[in-house]
């Protein structure tokens, strides 16, 4: 499972606080994953473990799913701060 060490840090990259940047962030992460899977060709077990972890994190709306924002979870309090979001 040597190839899994290159996929696990993706879960540690935080989602931006500004909601306007969520689409750009999810597109970047999606293209990064696609290019990684095409270039490095990780073993099947590593790819399945990573995709299962990604599915569980995004399905439960717990944690930092970079694919979309769960509708049930509220925005962070700092997202309403004009100093963070900008004017």
Automatic annotation (TrEMBL):
Keywords on record: Membrane, Transmembrane, Transmembrane helix
Principal place of residence: membrane
Pfam family, one: BC10
Cell compartment(s), UniProt: Membrane
Biological process per Gene Ontology, one example term: apoptotic nuclear changes
SMART domains cross-referenced by the UniProt entry: BC10
Claim: Transmembrane helix is one of the keywords in the record: yes
Domain of life: Eukaryota
Quaternary assembly: Interacts with RB1 (phosphorylated and unphosphorylated). Interacts with STAT3; the interaction is promoted by cell stimulation with IL6 and phosphorylation of STAT3.
Main function: Acts as a tumor suppressor; induces growth arrest at G(1)/S checkpoint and apoptosis via RB1-dependent and p53/TP53- and NF-kappa-B-independent mechanisms. Modulates expression of genes involved in the regulation of proliferation, cell cycle and apoptosis.
Protein name: Apoptosis inducing factor BLCAP
Source organism of this protein record: Phocoena sinus
């Amino acid at each position: 499972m040597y190839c899994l060490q290159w996929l696990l840090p993706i879960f540690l990259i935080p989602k931006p606080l500004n909601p306007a940047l969520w689409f750009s962030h999810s597109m970047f992460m999606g293209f990064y994953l696609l290019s990684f899977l095409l270039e490095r060709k990780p073993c099947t077990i590593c790819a399945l473990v990573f995709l299962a972890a990604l599915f569980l994190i995004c399905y439960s709306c717990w944690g930092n799913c970079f694919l979309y924002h769960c509708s049930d979870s509220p925005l962070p309090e700092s997202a309403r701060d004009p100093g963070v979001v900008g004017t």
